[in-house]
Specification:
Layout lengths: L3 H17 L5 H23 L20
Length: 68
């Protein structure tokens, strides 16, 4: 189970990685796309966190991402 603080930390890390990533080839483009999908999933998880909880936050289940 991830806490809300852990989700926020992961969002920050993905945003930092995206801001530093330079796309030079297809592999870089795939990595950027994967990071963008991960960021969307993390933001959705953050929105689904129950607040407040005496035992910590819980993450709601997330449906599998679909390719656009």
């Amino acid at each position: 189970m991830l806490t809300s603080k852990s989700v926020e930390t992961l969002i920050d890390l993905v945003e930092i990685k995206l801001s530093c990533l330079e796309v030079w080839d297809r592999e870089d483009a795939r990595e950027r796309k994967a990071l963008e999908i991960a960021l969307k999933e993390l933001v959705a998880m953050r929105a689904g966190i129950k607040r407040p909880s005496s035992t910590g936050a819980e993450i709601a289940p997330l449906r599998a991402a679909t390719a656009a």
